[in-house]
Design brief:
There is one protein chain. This protein is α+β, with helices and mostly antiparallel strands. It is built from three helices and four strands; from the N terminus they run E-H-E-E-H-H-E. A hairpin with a 6-residue loop joins strand 2 and strand 3. It is elongated.
Length: 116
């Protein structure tokens, strides 16, 4: 018979350990991204982005108000995997868009609620 664990026992994970569970990707247009250049690529960019969403890689997507960029929350656990996916999108291949990649994880301060 297994021992019953106390649900209020302290967490045993290292206090600084927070796993990356998502990547926040914030886009920026490059100097090459003229309205004409973007217009030529968009018929290919939109379907490619939808494919990533349907494959479960893009969890959420937003448009930056006051800017011309997009923000994705990706279902990947490394910035390298996010970079690889996003650089294969047509705007990335054409050198018209880059991304700032920010690893996200569980809200670490919530662990203080479990301390005794």
């Amino acid at each position: 018979m297994s021992e019953i664990q106390n649900p209020s026992a302290p967490v045993t994970a290292a206090p600084d350990a927070v796993p990356t569970t998502k990547i926040l990707a914030i886009s920026s247009l490059t100097a090459k991204a003229t309205p004409e250049a973007i217009a030529q690529i968009m018929p290919f960019e939109a379907p490619a982005t939808v494919r990533l969403h349907l494959a479960g890689k893009i969890d959420q997507w937003f448009f930056q108000t006051g800017s011309n960029g997009v923000v994705f929350i990706l279902n990947v656990t490394t910035a390298a995997e996010a970079h690889e996916l996003l650089e294969k999108l047509p705007l990335g291949v054409a050198g018209l868009m880059t991304f700032e990649l920010i690893p996200l994880g569980p809200l670490k301060p919530l662990g203080m609620l479990l301390m005794e």
